[in-house]
Design goal:
alpha/beta, 6-stranded mixed sheet, 8 helices, about 30% helix, about 20% strand, binds fe (ii) ion
């Protein structure tokens, strides 16, 4: 089974800066003859507040021939409590109405693929608990299948035992709950997006993959992270073994966000200036 992972496409009809990467990405996807595509979130520039960003991005996604499973990113459904756009009932409802469920479970032969809404993590509310309960059940009912887990946010950025990385990784308490579930089951892969850095590593027996954004890289406006500054996608081959390969795709442009952040995410600029 061959799965293409794409992530952080950041498409929008009103902020079209990255839309031009879809044509070369779609051409490459179609040539791959994959069984499935997984999008690990941030489809949109601002689906958290603009329905048209979600409908525009979903229309593009439907141009792919292979079936696509999607989990949302922070720019699609919002982020942590206290952020500019916290996840709330309105944002979740908008996403679910326009894009579909915010988590998935899909079985194929010896594998069970599970996608979670990582933006629920850190709220400590009923939505977060319901998802943990759903995830535990999905793992417990895998019936001998190996597991691959897809999420917008990575488990951690620099180290499994690091503290709260704020915007970037899963918070320590929620990360520990995921670690406990991963330890109790046969989780071969944890694949994520969000960081706009492409990297592969491992946590104990689990392979970790940070998929490259299909839109932009970050130069110096955020701290250096592990991995490479490329735009592209990931090919995951699920057989008796798992093989994951990060791919830079010909014809796609590695936009650099630093010089255009004031056009794309002006609130992020204002907050930086105030800090
Ligand atoms: Fe992103
Ligand atoms: Fe993100």
């Amino acid at each position: 089974m061959k799965i293409i992972q794409i992530t952080d496409t950041h498409f929008s009809p009103s902020k079209p800066h990255f839309n031009g990467n879809w044509a070369p990405l779609l051409t490459w996807i179609e040539a791959q003859n994959a069984d499935l595509i997984v999008h690990t979130g941030d489809l949109t520039v601002d689906g958290a507040d603009k329905a048209e960003d979600i409908t525009f991005s979903m229309d593009l996604m439907r141009q792919a021939t292979a079936p696509m499973l999607i989990v949302p990113g922070n720019h699609d459904v919002g982020h942590l409590p206290g952020s500019d756009q916290p996840v709330n009932a309105e944002r979740l409802q908008r996403w679910r109405a326009l894009s579909g469920a915010d988590r998935f479970v899909e079985d194929s032969q010896a594998w069970r693929l599970v996608g979670i809404n990582a933006l629920l993590l850190g709220h400590g509310d009923d939505e977060e608990e319901a998802q943990f309960e759903w995830l535990r059940t999905a793992f417990e009912q895998r019936n001998g299948r190996r597991l691959a887990l897809f999420s917008h946010k990575p488990l951690f950025v620099d180290a499994p035992d690091e503290g709260d990385t704020g915007y970037w990784g899963v918070r320590p308490a929620q990360r520990q709950r995921l670690f406990d579930l991963i330890a109790a089951h046969d989780v071969a892969l944890f694949a994520s997006g969000h960081l706009h850095w492409a990297w592969q590593g491992e946590y104990k027996e689990t392979s970790l993959t940070w998929g490259p954004s299909a839109a932009f890289v970050i130069d110096t406006m955020e701290r250096e992270m592990p991995g490479e500054r490329i735009v592209g996608a990931v090919v995951h081959e699920f057989g008796s073994e798992l093989r994951s390969q990060i791919v830079a795709i010909p014809g796609m442009t590695a936009h650099v966000i630093d010089g255009i952040i004031h056009e794309i995410y002006p609130k992020a600029v204002r907050k930086d200036a105030a800090e």
